[in-house]
Design a protein that fits this description.
Blueprint lengths: L2 H4 L1 E5 L6 E5 L4 E5 L2 H11 L14 E7 L3 E5 L4 E4 L7 E6 L4 E7 L4 E5 L13 E3 L22 H13 L20
Parallel strand pairs: 3-10
Antiparallel strand pairs: 1-2, 2-5, 3-4, 4-9, 6-7, 7-8, 8-9
Length: about 190
Amino acid sequence: MSKSENRTLNAQCNCGRVQMHAVGRPIVATACYCASCRKAGALLEAIPGAAPVLNSDGSTDFVLFRKDRIDCVRGADQLREHRLTPTSKTRRVVATCCNAPMFLEFTSGHWLTLYRHRLDKDARPPLQMRVMTRDRRADVSVKNDLPSYAGHSGKSMLKLIGAWAAMAFRSPKIDYVKGELDGHGT
């Protein structure tokens, strides 16, 4: 295993009561402009004392990891989910101790999407692309410093499929989230 495949990245909430470890190289680091991420970001930021989620251009920075390479090592009892609708397959998970959004999970997927700003600042992988730019706010112009895609990129989809194949096409369950975020789930 190479040095980057054996590396452990630390993610934690603002107060440090919740800590997660991600082992190995991330699948991809991206900024998402989709309407769901913007809506959820605004809702999560509105929780009293919440940490920022959205960038000034309305995007949200994420780092995707295989589910079998990430774990909550401290504070799982503080994690609560938020779904935009009762039937949503995507849940955003918040550390209730300090209202810091920690990760997003497509529940039937094989990857876990950490909010990039939860990772230790000196170890954050650089962004590799922007996705869902067709959903960006009308006042936002996309810069040319990264590849940008109107939808999801074919390259990131291939990386996700490659990661799934490396996992023998398994989709592990995340069982350390305890329930809905009080008063904020729909």
